[in-house]
Give the backbone structure.
Amino acid sequence: MKPGVALVALLSWWRRTPLQLAMLLLGLALATALWSGVQAINAEARASYARAAQMLGQGDLTRLVDPTGGRISQQVFAELRAAGWAVSPILEGHLRLGDQRFRLIGVDPPSLPPEAGFGEFPTGGAAMLMAMAPPEVLFGAPDTLGQVPPDLEVPLGLELREAPALAPGVLVADIRIARQLLGAPGEISYFLLAPEQPEGRAPLDEAAPRLREAAPEGGAELARLTDSFHLNLTAFGLLAFAVGLFIVHAAIGLAFEQRRSMFRTLRALGLTAGALIALLMAELLVLALVAGVVGVALGYVIAAALMPDVAATLSGLYGATLPGTLALRPEWWLSGMAIALLGTLAAGARGLWRIYRLPLLAPAQPRAWARASERALMAQGAVALALLALAVMLGVWGGGLVAGFAMLAAFLLAAALALPVVLSGALALAARRVRGVMGEWFLADTRQQLPGLSLALMALMLALAANIGVSTMVSSFRLTFTGWLDQRLAAELYVTARSEAEAEDLRAWLAPRADAVLPVWRFDTDVAGEPTTLYGVADHATYRDHWPLLQTLPEAWDAVAAGEAVMINEQLSRRAGLRPGDAVELPGGWRGQVAGVYSDYGNPTGQVMLGIDDFLALYPEVPRREHAVRVAPERAADLARDLQDTFSLPDQNVTDQAEAKAASLRIFERTFAVTGALNLLTLGVATVALLASLVTLSGMRLPQLAPVWAMGLTRARLAQLELARMLMLAALTAIAALPVGLGLAWVLLAVINVDAFGWRLPMHLFPADWLRLGLMALLAAGLAAAWPVRRLARMAPGDLLRVFASER
Amino acid sequence: MLLEVKDLRKSFATSEGPLSVLRGVSFELDHGESLALTGESGSGKSTLLHLIAGLDAPDSGQIRVAGQDMAGAGDAARARLRREVVGLVFQQFNLIGSLTVAGNLAFQARLAGRHDPALVDDLAARLGLSGLMTRYPEQLSGGQQQRVAIGRALAVRPVLVLADEPTGNLDEATGDAVLDLLLDGVAQAGAGLVLVTHSPRLAARCARRVHLGSGRLAA
């Protein structure tokens, strides 16, 4: 037999079942879309980190920095040059234009080493110098400049000029301009060290004894911090893809089953098993290519829609700036197509194997597939138990994020595989108790339908469990975070001076007017090998009464005030293994013990709080511009206004407590906006999975429904029962999803979050959310069943009669 | 009169225009009487049976079953008549795959609210199904399945049994045995029987025979 003839025969079946073909393509396209959409976001973010790392050659140029984090004076630059050092000063700060905050980098073009790339100015110095003339220019990527309100009067009358390859959120200016904009006359943040240094220059401890060399930063730190977020997104993408593959698996499995007799005929007419499989694979390949193209295009749309929220999340959580738009990358198109092809083959593999082993002479039994699936239930239950055991083992002995996600995957897969077993058991139990012929038939028929619906129901359960798990985590986080903010942001006002001199004046002015002026003085360093921010803390009731301590020694604050101990945050405690009572050493030689551990949500790095006297003695150069002001709440607004009037302080330098809390909560909400959107999309895919299965099954269902209709049930009544059946199955699935979702939440809170962020949150339960989700599950099932049910209710008697006879 | 069919007409839409299948069919059937309906493939035998059973509606004409108007009744009324008055036996058996033999035997009687366990047991014994009550249809042979279908139709105590090629899927010996059981059961129930068949040999087992050709009946 010519394979082409056989292929035409195989494909003719799809022509007769266009709806089933549409469902298969839709499932595959949606699965590909969600996966490739998430990958597009990840690729864009990583490309952005790489661009940020290239800025100023931070990826490969050593810097000279003040170890206390303080600014360096222009005088030091002159001294370094005189001592023969080839360095270039850089000033960095944040500039607010309108409502937007930008990272401003001031550079000195004549001294900039050629290796300090600036996107399209990769050759550095000379090109930069040309580009920078005249100096009254602010460079930024088009996206970045687009965020500047068009009617805004740019300070100093600067011209905004596009530099497409600059990292998003970054503005670059001549250092003289930057100093004016940042109110930092004569100040330098750090020096870039040219790789080629002149021979015979003076040693650093003579030329600039306060400075030390800092290794190139690269984008590694940002990439490490954001890894967990991207892993999270990838896990969600994978979940959505898996849910989509359930649709494909179901559609392919049913299509193979429905064509069994055709396969036998083709084999009987001389087509070899190998040729049949090859033809079916070719058929799948064509379907995968069509769906892949649609899916990748759809993925781009999803990614573009989610990108602004992802950008906001990464900015809020990690300070990483991403463009709000998406670039089309060939590697992403290719990977999307590859995943569509691999997914289709994976979903069809079992079906192909069964067809390969199909006995040529066995009678065609439409029920064989269902019976085989029923027999497979026991084996499925055993695999589910094994996977559950694996999840437990990973939980007990595994470590790290990857083990955490592997545990999650094993747990979810175990739950999905167990679902048909549980549902079948529940229906069997109900059948024993039910009285009445309709109830008995309803339950028996539902049980018989389970094999055909189980994949779609598994997809629905995964989507619901993900929703319950993630919403429990987010809501637990929100509850904890809100309470924590109340404790942590206890001061009524937060004031930042523009210079050290102004800060001194501020303190003097505030002293008689406020109840307390508390320092918020800090610098970034390493403690116990972990990146840490070191704070000086005053001995005040604000801390003693409010600070959110998780573990503490007796009289802990007294020990901190006396300079004998420090407080550390949970992140540092977990990462460095430090507990109250443990010894700790700080830069500058301070030694003492850990007096307590406090919660510090939303912050990726470690923190140490040292008594202010020791802090100032050890690190006298630390900037002292930020302060927390305690004042009677009713006087806070007046004091803020007087403060701004007296010192002409910009709005952003005086923040009241409510504003600070609102900003934190805003960041929090945006952080989880993407998760919420992905949750909803996954539920949408599960609904499509149900619809696909029901549409496919509705044709196969007629031989079971027609006799019942013939014996005296109206089509409308049958349609009602079909709808009730789907709602019942959805309700049972939602009930089964609840413990799975709570298990997922526990893993996210107790394993994934601890590994990813370094903090552990208490788990709270939100039954109202479960109820809402249960209703959503019913709605999804109702929507999926609506069309097949309506078709049944309006089916012409002639269509039902075909079940009984082929002649008229 | 148990069944009155008068000037029944039915056509179907096809791509070449309406196809007239029944062109004024009329006949009557009395209580306890059996009628064989023969005809070529496509002559409209099954269509006529479906109309009598209330599974489809005619274009025009009358059907009265046990004095009740089947042709003019609405969907719900026809469903009630099917449930309570008519027993159906199909060529493909059309048992309910999710129910056991016992469940299938009692199904329609329970739907009609006249389930008699003693009658079901009696029918099962007469049809040779007593040892198969817990099996599912897919575990039965064709002959066994058709015996279950006959039992299901008789368990409702119908006044009219309609059988569409009940032995069409069975070998001759099995077919004969099944028909014996059907005729015997119908006779014991005192119901009327309309039997659609291709076979003149089987038709000869009925009291009356009519032939359907070109949409009309001939004796």
